Automatic annotation (TrEMBL):
Protein name, per record: YjbR protein
Annotated SUPFAM superfamilies: YjbR-like
Pfam families in alphabetical order: YjbR
Superkingdom field: Bacteria
Length: 114
């Protein structure tokens, strides 16, 4: 079980109106100016926006795969180690992170990709 970085980027690219921002050590992802994710190539980890309940559940269930990153604005951000997750689960988490930031009309036009 493992997801390559290229697979993660394909998941993000499949979503509507994703904007990338380049930092010196990471890439950030936003939809209409609202951040929903990060990617750190050096550690092959991603940071994804989730609900606080989902953040706590993921970290409690598999702390070797998920880490609490931070909480902000009522959301919990989770670090995901790509080596420990399968593509289907990551795709759902990426979509959920995007959905938590995207406006309603984009969400209605783009259900979870399968």
């Amino acid at each position: 079980m493992s997801v390559r970085s290229a697979e993660f980027h394909e998941m993000v690219d499949a979503l509507a109106e994703v904007e990338r921002g380049k930092g010196s050590e990471y890439t950030s992802y936003s939809v209409r100016g609202k951040r929903f994710g990060y990617y750190w190539p050096r550690t092959e980890t991603v940071g994804l926006k989730q609900t606080l309940i989902e953040q706590q559940a993921l970290v409690a269930e598999r702390p070797e795969v998920f880490e609490e990153q931070f909480t902000a604005g009522g959301f919990g951000w989770v670090v995901v180690h790509l080596a420990g997750i399968d593509a289907d689960e990551l795709a759902e988490l990426v979509y959920e992170a995007w959905r938590l930031s995207a406006p309603e009309e984009l969400i209605a036009a783009q259900p979870l990709p399968r």
